[in-house]
């Protein structure tokens, strides 16, 4: 139960305030607006299914520390790994040392920028424990709405586990070959 519009005799169980606006969605204890810990909808922005991480939005401080804080920490760790995912487009010319590849491609739609699409693809790869997205294809669609234009990005990629050291070596060899040293 999120909001209570009718006056009740309940008090906030933390500060004893009479103005109850919310209840903890885990333990159902009454909370005033100052004591409630809430999670915004954009906290899990890059997650494909936000309810997979957390379905509740309002917590008492104890339930927040017990239930929500570990989930948010796990999401932040996945996001940090997603930022480290190597992006290799379909037009990448050098040999890619793939150790293991996913069986199916991942795709994203409706992104507002190219970087957002790449990061969402990287997040999906990090969720599957991969460190790269290879054979990536990004497509930009422009939509016009009465004189103003907006770009919407979508993308498809194959998550893979690659040898980063061998990739750097191959890039160095390619550079030396092109220069003619």
Summarize the amount of helix as a percent range: 25-40%
Broad structural category:
alpha+beta
Distance between the first and last residues' Cα = 71 Å
The major β-sheet equals: 5 strands, mixed
Helical stretch tally: 4
Radius of gyration computed on alpha carbons: 23 Å
Beta strands, count: 9
Shape: elongated
Beta content comes to 25-35%
Residue runs with pLDDT of under 50 for 5 or more positions: 1-7
Give the ordered list of helices and strands: EEEHEHEEEHEEH
Q: Could you report the average pLDDT, rounded to the nearest whole number?
A: 85
Describe this structure in words.
- By secondary structure, this protein is α+β, with helices and mostly antiparallel strands.
- The protein has 4 helices and 9 strands, in the order E-E-E-H-E-H-E-E-E-H-E-E-H.
- The protein has helices spanning 50-53, 61-83, 114-127, 164-179; strands at residues 22-23, 30-31, 37-38, 58-59, 86-89, 98-101, 106-111, 132-145, 148-162.
- The strands form 3 sheets. Strands 5, 6, 7, 8 and 9 form a 5-stranded mixed β-sheet that branches. It has a two-stranded antiparallel ribbon with strand order 1-2.
- Strand 8 (132-145) and strand 9 (148-162) form a beta hairpin.
- Helix 2 packs across helix 3.
- It starts with 21 loop residues before the first strand and ends with a helix.
- Residues 1-7 have low confidence and may be disordered.
Based on the model shown, name its key terms.
5-stranded mixed beta sheet; disordered N terminus; alpha+beta; two-stranded antiparallel ribbon; 181 residues
């Amino acid at each position: 139960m999120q909001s209570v519009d009718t006056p009740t005799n309940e008090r906030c169980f933390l500060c004893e305030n009479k103005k109850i606006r919310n209840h903890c969605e885990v333990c159902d204890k009454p909370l005033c607006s100052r004591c409630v810990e809430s999670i915004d909808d954009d906290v899990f922005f890059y997650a494909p299914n936000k309810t997979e991480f957390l379905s509740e939005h309002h917590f008492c401080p104890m339930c927040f520390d017990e239930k929500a804080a570990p989930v948010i920490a796990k999401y932040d760790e996945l996001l940090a790994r997603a930022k480290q995912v190597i992006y290799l487009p379909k037009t990448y010319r050098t040999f890619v040392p793939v150790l293991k590849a996913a069986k199916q491609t991942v795709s994203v739609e409706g992104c507002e920028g190219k970087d957002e699409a790449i990061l969402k693809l990287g997040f999906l790869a990090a969720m599957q424990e991969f460190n790269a997205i290879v054979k990536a294809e990004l497509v930009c669609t422009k939509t016009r709405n009465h004189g103003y234009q907006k770009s919407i990005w979508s993308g498809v990629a194959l998550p893979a586990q690659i040898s980063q050291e061998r990739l750097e070596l191959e890039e160095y060899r390619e550079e030396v070959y092109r220069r003619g040293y």
